[in-house]
Amino acid sequence: MGPSGGGKTSILRMLAGLEKPDAGEIYFNGKLANSLSVQERGIGFVFQNYALFKHMTVFDNIAYGLKVKKTRPAVIKERVHNLINIMGLEGTENKFPDQLSGGQRQRVAFARALAPEPKLLLLDEPFAAIDAKIRKELRVWLRSLINEFGTTTIFVTHDQDEAIEVADEIIIIQKGQVEQQGTPWEIYNQPASAFVASFIGESNKLDAPLSLNGFPELSEYKGPDVQVLIRPEWIEIHSENAPVRPEAGQEGTVRHVHFRGDSWYLEIELLNGIRLFTYQAINQQVYQPGDKVNIFIHRLSVFTPKETRILENRSKVDLMPINL
Amino acid sequence: MKIKSFRIAVRSVVMGYLLILIILPISAVYIKGFSLGWEPFWKEISGVIAWKAILLTLKLSIFTTLIQAVIGTFIAFVLVRYRFFGRSLFNSMVDLPFSLPTSVSGLMLLTLLGPQSPIGKWLNTMGIHLLYNQTAIIIGMVFVTFPFVIRTVQPLIEQFDPSQEEASYTLGAGKGYTFFRILLPSVFPGIIAGSMLAFSRALSEFGALSLISGNLPGKTMVASVFIYGEVENNNMQGAAAVAIVLITLSLIVLLLVNSFQKRRGIQA
Amino acid sequence: MRKVFISITVLLFVLILILPFISIVFGAFQNGVGPVIQAFKRPEAIHALTVTFIITVIVVILNAVIGVILSLEIVRGKWIPKWLHSFINIMIDLPFSVSPVIGGLMIILLFGPTTVLGMFFENIGFKIVFALPGMVMATVFVTFPLMVREIVPVLSELGTSSEEASATLGAGPVRTFFQITLPSIRWAVYYGLVLTIARSVGEFGAVLVVSGNIINQTQTATTLVYQDSVNNNIVAADSVALLLGILSILVLLVLEWMKNRKEGRVYAYRGKKFRKALWSISSGQPSKFSN
């Protein structure tokens, strides 16, 4: 996963053998694969535009990889029909790609790639052309498909929600470099760099020097390379009259509110001029611009070129908080 | 109003132009051909020389078309897919038979293969004669139809989605397998369209063939040369009769190409 | 494999295109430069070239004017019913599908010395067949579609909004035509003109039939080449042919240059259509891929 142009698709294509790396080695199960041709690598590839064979029926498309291997026709028939059933493509065997819907074409693309039972499945943004709403349903489908087939799958996307929901492990690539590699949980909660933290999930981005109640360590950071990130879910809002811990919170004024269907979006300006955004659930108190509030920041992340640090609000730790 | 009458005048001129230029002449051929009725029409056509000319032209045009279908596709593929020294030069050269006057084309082939050129002499010593026979006709037809299949197939190969070929590779197919199973079926409509046009062109070729075929009645005389001969001999009836056959054939091919492309939505 | 394919292709090109062209060059200059110049100095050669020139000029003017007007009528004429439209389209494509000899035949059938029209015109001193008018007609017949096929697609794509704007600004139809319409299609017109020129110069079959190929009277450059070959006058034939061949190459280059030079989205899609347009030269088949 990573921003567009970062090299994700290139890496995928190099794994497939569709492009040659300028340097470096690729190992499949410990064996060097650089010199293997595309045909020899035993991979399945699902292209962004599906690349179905337009002049062939659904059946022939799916059967193609098996025909190349000279599998017996009876076996081909059985395997293809099996896949068609799994993919929910019954009735389309004799149709041509241009007679299918987008979703059907995509499933044919998957079936075709899986038919020859590849050892590795490579997916190049296969959901890119699909509406946002359906994409969410497809994530579940993809997850269960991979579980059922058990094939190692590498999935390229720039949609971070997708990556977090579907992946067992995420590799974040930017400008050809690996920024972080880990489980979704690790990536989200222990981002290795400011880039990862801001790429995954949302954050308030603040510069040093900075001073916030409950984070005395912030005074250590002065330089220009310091990035402080606060996720909106780490910010708790209370009206000024009912603060959680008055001495640990920050006073501020609501500057902007808008409705998002399932929540409210608020922007709050603190006394020292810092603006933070956060979300408020619908069933909680509704605020208007101009309201005075008290916010409590549970934790924040600090990123410098040398280190990454997650700071918890002191007042949660100290029983006897001391104002500095 | 002055403008209105001007408009009408313009339109009449235009329609009159069309009429005199095209509608009348074509009708004239049909009228003349059938002017004495069906019987004489058939008689003219089935006259030995006329009939043989028509058959010969048909046979050799079909042969040429088959040749072009193969080498045209091949050359189109190489020109699109491979980079080599002089490629764009060759690419532009493809159009040469289009812009050359046909008598010049004929002369070129005549000079090249004739007894006076080194190549002609060499071929003669080997017993190969490439002039004044049916082989010469095929050579001439191939020359003038050279660009047709190439130019219809080229854009199709250029526009072909490379990811389909890549998909084929990932599924284990080699380059040759992919070419014949994936690429070729896709550009097939282009091959057909180009072939039909080449066929039509070969049928109507006159200039080049008049110089290199030898024009032997019944042996190497093509239909267009026959028509010319009949005109020279003032046998307008005979000329028109054979002309009708040719026109009708060409029209049929044109209509086929038209409807074929409409069905497929081909973009050149 | 790749190298094999490329070699085969190069070989095909050499055999089919390059060798024939070179042989003309050698054939022409086989006795030195002198005979070549002689070939052009012959009175019949000068005459033939003049005839070709005259025909080309007349045909170009005729086709340019009528071509533009006809294109406008076809694209914008509201007075044409649907059925007439397709009929006209077929009529326009017809000269392409027909052998040039047949083109010449038609003219003779209509205006020959034994026909009503022919005799009528001859009586008023206007000989058509075996004379310049007939040759002009034959050439017009074969080049007629060129302009129209170039201009019509461009016109259809342009639409009438510019002319309408001009009208709202007070310009009359004539001014609008010359200052708005014509400039907007000028590249299509130039294109068509170059194609027409090339085709007029290169036309052989139709002209041969209609003209009777009378030396010093109705010979054109192309029929002169034919004549010289038949008379086995190789050097002369090759010389004139070489001239025509070089002209053809020039035409190709000019067209290529025009294709690159043109501005505006009007020609944006024409890249490959340039070739399509060349169908027409040398009695090719029409560009059936558009419209």
Give the count of helical stretches of chain C. Answer: 14
Number of strands of chain C: 0
Spatial strand sequence of the major β-sheet of chain A: 10-14-11-12-13
Strand content of chain C: under 5%
CATH topology-level name of chain C: MetI-like fold
Radius of gyration of chain C: 22 Å
Radius of gyration of chain A: 26 Å
This entry's quaternary arrangement is heterotrimer
Q: Uncertain spans of chain A, ≥5 residues at pLDDT below 50?
A: none
Mean pLDDT of chain C: 80
- Global structural class of chain A: alpha+beta
CATH class of chain C: Mainly Alpha
How would you characterize the largest beta sheet of chain C? none
Helical content band of chain C: over 70%
Largest interface: B-C, 91 and 93 residues
Alpha carbon gap, first and last residue of chain A: 42 Å
Main sheet summary of chain A: 5 strands, antiparallel
Based on the model shown, name its key terms.
heterotrimer; A: 324 residues; Rossmann fold; OB fold (Dihydrolipoamide Acetyltransferase, E2P); 4-stranded antiparallel sheet; 26% strand; elongated; B: 268 residues; mainly alpha; MetI-like fold; 81% helix; 0% strand
Topology (elements, then pairings):
The complex is a heterotrimer of chains A (324), B (268) and C (291).
Chain A: H1 8-16, E1 27-28, E2 31-32, E3 43-46, H2 58-68, H3 73-86, H4 102-114, E4 120-124, H5 132-149, E5 152-156, H6 160-166, E6 170-174, E7 177-182, H7 184-189, H8 194-199, E8 204-207, E9 227-230, E10 235-239, E11 250-259, E12 263-270, E13 275-281, E14 292-297, E15 299-303, E16 308-312, H9 314-317
Parallel strand pairs in A: 3-4, 4-5
Antiparallel strand pairs in A: 1-2, 6-7, 8-9, 9-15, 10-14, 11-12, 11-14, 12-13, 15-16
Helix pairs in contact in A: 2-3, 2-4
Chain B: H1 2-34, H2 38-46, H3 48-81, H4 87-93, H5 96-99, H6 102-113, H7 118-125, H8 134-159, H9 162-170, H10 175-204, H11 207-212, H12 223-232, H13 236-264
Helix pairs in contact in B: 1-13, 2-13, 3-8, 3-10, 6-8, 8-10, 9-10, 10-13, 12-13
Chain C: H1 2-29, H2 33-41, H3 43-76, H4 82-97, H5 100-111, H6 116-123, H7 132-158, H8 161-168, H9 173-184, H10 186-202, H11 205-211, H12 221-230, H13 234-261, H14 273-278
